């Protein structure tokens, strides 16, 4: 046998071992729960598109992508205000509105009516899915119970599912336990509400911090890369770490790896 043939057999053996290990890791998984903003839907270009349209209509000259980034940058700090007790439990819609009111001043978008502000705040209910999302979720739904596990409030997630045709079986998330991810209560709630052991639930996300937190509660984890989440100059997570059980390039790839 030649060296090339031996190397070929070695590569096949390694691939087979990886496939076996992945199958062993995912055995018993009955439900997939998904981070939504950035993993299922493209928040940045969706928000920027609507902001640009409104700015044009009102005669404002702004960088809509920077506006979207600034709005998203308020996401973590606003939830920390709830987590620390500075604010009582507050729905994400209301946290988004607090950030919006501040950045409208910073970007000099003055003179919007209350109706216009409320409509703009609800852009988060109208985000577009990534191109592979709906088809991939539809495949996965045939084998698993699928649900969002998001920090978005239930009305937001319901509207988003309607708008983007996301085929969820049920909507789970932060509002049900009045904790925001990465608090462990959110991940545990997915297993509790579905009457499953944590190891029978797989968290799917494009963000390693989310997966690490899910893993610490006992959930299985799947990493799906979203290279353009933060735009062409952004710095998304691109490489799996030890918190990841399955790594996929998109939802179609994930469905294939999970046998859906």
Please tell me about this protein's structure.
The protein is α/β, with parallel strands linked by helices and 260 residues long. Helices cover 50% and strands 11% of the residues. The protein is built from eleven helices and eight strands. The strands form two sheets. The protein has a six-stranded parallel sheet with strand order 5-4-1-6-7-8, with helices on both faces. Strands 2-3 form a two-stranded antiparallel sheet.
Write the layout of secondary structure elements.
Elements: H1 3-26, E1 31-34, E2 41-42, H2 43-58, H3 64-73, H4 75-83, H5 92-106, H6 114-121, E3 128-129, H7 133-141, E4 145-150, H8 154-164, E5 172-173, H9 184-193, E6 201-205, H10 208-217, E7 220-224, E8 246-248, H11 251-257
Parallel strand pairs: 1-4, 1-6, 4-5, 6-7, 7-8
Antiparallel strand pairs: 2-3
Helix pairs in contact: 2-3, 7-11
> What sort of overall outline do the alpha carbons produce when their principal axes are compared?
globular
Low-confidence segments, given as residue ranges, are 11-21
Question: Rg to the nearest angstrom?
Answer: 20 Å
Query: Tally the helices: what do you get?
Result: 11
**SSE pattern:** HEEHHHHHEHEHEHEHEEH
Helix-and-strand structural type: alpha/beta
Quick check: average pLDDT? 93
Number of strands: 8
**Proportion of residues in extended strands:** 5-15%
Distance from N terminus to C terminus (CA atoms, Å) equals 38 Å
Strand order of the largest sheet: 5-4-1-6-7-8
Largest sheet: 6 strands, parallel
Share of residues in helices: 40-55%
């Amino acid at each position: 046998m030649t060296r090339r043939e031996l190397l070929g057999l070695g590569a096949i053996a390694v691939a087979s071992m990886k496939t076996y290990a992945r199958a062993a890791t995912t055995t018993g998984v009955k439900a997939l729960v998904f981070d939504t903003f950035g993993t299922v839907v493209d928040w940045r270009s969706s928000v920027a598109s609507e902001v640009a349209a409104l700015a044009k209509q009102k005669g404002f000259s702004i960088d809509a992508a920077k506006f979207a980034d600034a709005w998203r940058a308020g996401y973590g700090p606003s939830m920390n205000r709830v987590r620390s007790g500075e604010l009582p439990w507050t729905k994400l819609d209301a946290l988004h509105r607090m950030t919006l009111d501040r950045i409208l001043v910073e970007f000099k978008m003055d003179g919007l009516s209350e109706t216009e502000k409320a409509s703009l705040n609800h852009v988060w209910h109208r985000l577009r899915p990534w191109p592979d999302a709906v088809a991939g979720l539809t495949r996965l739904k045939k084998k698993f119970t699928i649900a969002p596990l998001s920090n978005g409030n239930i009305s937001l997630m319901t509207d988003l599912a309607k708008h983007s045709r996301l085929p969820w079986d049920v909507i789970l998330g932060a509002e049900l336990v009045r904790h925001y991810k990465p608090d462990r209560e959110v991940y545990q709630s997915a297993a509790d509400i579905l009457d499953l052991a944590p190891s029978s639930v797989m968290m799917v996300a494009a963000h390693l911090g989310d997966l690490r937190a899910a893993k610490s509660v006992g959930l299985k984890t799947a990493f799906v890369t979203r290279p353009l989440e933060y735009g062409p100059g952004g710095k998304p997570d691109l490489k799996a770490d030890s918190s990841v059980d399955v790594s996929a390039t998109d939802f179609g790839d994930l469905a294939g790896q999970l046998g859906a």
